[in-house]
Design a protein that fits this description.
single chain; 389 residues; TIM Barrel; 9-stranded mixed beta sheet; 3-stranded antiparallel beta sheet; 37% helix; Mandel_Rmase/mucon_lact_enz_CS; metal-binding; Galactonate dehydratase
């Protein structure tokens, strides 16, 4: 691997594309014709992130794209006000694109630049619903037919501030059903999605412990890390969190509370650069990495590059066929879909340069003409008050 800084050149253009179903892509081009792709998005806030990417691009144009760490430091810390989902997501997409350029300039996959692969394949899990339990068994069976050995489900739909007996029983029954379909040799992760209060989480986790979920995700809202320790110690079920945390500083209180799995999203938590640091921090607390990724092809490609180079990686989420993807899907923007052809529930190690995925630029540009204005649903309780989605 011979570094060739001349092959990368200088950044001359940063473009953004709002594409269905709910994504934002960015494209960085150099004067030597090297192109890197990233996915900076806050779902439901694409317009705000796009504007932030454009502001950050003012700094990047004219710069050497291979100075990734220096650019990360400036973009993350150069403004007096730091952090938060919009800035961190804009930075994340640009960081992904810079790593893509670096890999292409060096002629190697990004994971080679991160120290090389520590595994030969990456275990994947697939989404099976759970908000509405009627089709849960069928959805799980369909994913098993596709070869997956792990699935994730929502624990519940809308939940009151304090659950009724029926509400709690509904969660337990769904998890029990999933275990029955999966049997003892496959895994289910249960996503609380911040919908369940801490008191109910402490009640529910011991009740689902006999069904041994791989982990329970976001059992309390991310702005309440002081409540996590009591939830973690309420049962033996491993607790996961992190899709709405954006830096290693955000993750430290969760790790100190004893979470077993961290779930940074590579399109939210500062990209490849910061996610690598979050994973290293998690290793100190014997926690595993399971990147959040209900997003598009670039976010998934970046996640896989980190997964192959991270010793304490556990499992990877993907969004192919997920219910959010109405009107377009992940593979619609990929020139060669074989990179995302999972076998027996595993992803093969990507060998192409950069992020290892060839984006169909013509498809992206066509889709961006329609764009989208996706917003997440707003839920309300029976009395009309706001409910967590």
């Amino acid at each position: 691997m011979t570094p060739d800084h001349g092959a990368a050149g200088r950044i001359v253009r940063v473009e953004t594309f709002v594409v269905p179903p709910r994504w934002l892509f960015c494209r960085i081009e150099t004067d030597q014709g090297v192109v890197g792709w990233g996915e900076p998005i806050v779902e439901g806030r694409a317009e705000a992130v796009r504007a932030t990417v454009e502001v950050l691009a003012e700094y990047l144009v004219g710069q050497d794209p291979l100075r990734i760490e220096d650019h990360w430091q400036v973009l993350a810390k150069g403004g007096f006000y730091r952090g938060g989902p919009v800035l961190s997501s804009a930075l994340a997409g640009l960081d992904q694109a810079l790593w893509d350029i670096a890999g292409k300039a060096y002629g190697v996959p990004v994971h080679a630049l991160l120290g090389g692969p520590v595994r030969d394949r990456v275990r994947m899990y697939a989404w099976v619903g759970g908000d509405e339990p009627s089709a849960l068994a069928e959805n799980i069976a369909a994913r098993l037919d596709e070869g997956f050995t792990a699935v994730k489900m929502n624990a519940t739909g809308r939940m009151p501030a304090l659950a009724t007996v029926a509400d709690v029983a509904g969660v337990v029954d769904r998890v029990a059903l999933a275990r029955e379909v999966l049997g003892p040799h496959r895994d289910v992760a249960v996503d609380f999605h911040g919908r369940v209060g801490a008191a109910d989480a402490r009640r529910i986790l011991p009740l689902i412990a006999p069904y041994q979920p791989m982990f329970v995700e976001e059992p309390v809202l991310p702005d309440r890390p002081h409540l996590l320790r009591d939830v973690v110690t309420a049962s033996t079920v491993p607790v996961a969190t992190g899709e709405r945390l954006y830096s290693r500083w955000d993750f430290r209180p969760a790790l100190e509370a004893g979470v077993a799995v961290v779930q940074p999203d590579l399109s939210h938590a500062g990209g490849i650069s910061e996610t690598r640091r979050i994973a290293a921090l998690a290793e100190v607390w014997d926690a595993q990495l399971a990147p959040h990724c209900p997003l598009g092809p670039i976010a998934l490609a970046a996640s896989l590059q980190v997964a192959f180079a991270t010793p304490n990686f556990l499992i990877q989420e993907h969004s192919i066929g997920i219910h959010y993807n109405e009107g377009a899907d992940l593979l619609d923007y990929v020139a060669d879909t074989s990179v995302f052809a999972f076998n027996d529930g595993y992803a093969a190690r990507p060998i192409g340069p950069g992020l290892g995925v060839a984006i169909d630029e013509a498809a992206v540009r066509r889709a961006s003409q329609a764009g989208h204005a996706w917003r997440n649903p707003v839920w309300r309780h029976d009395d009309g008050g706001f409910a967590e989605w």
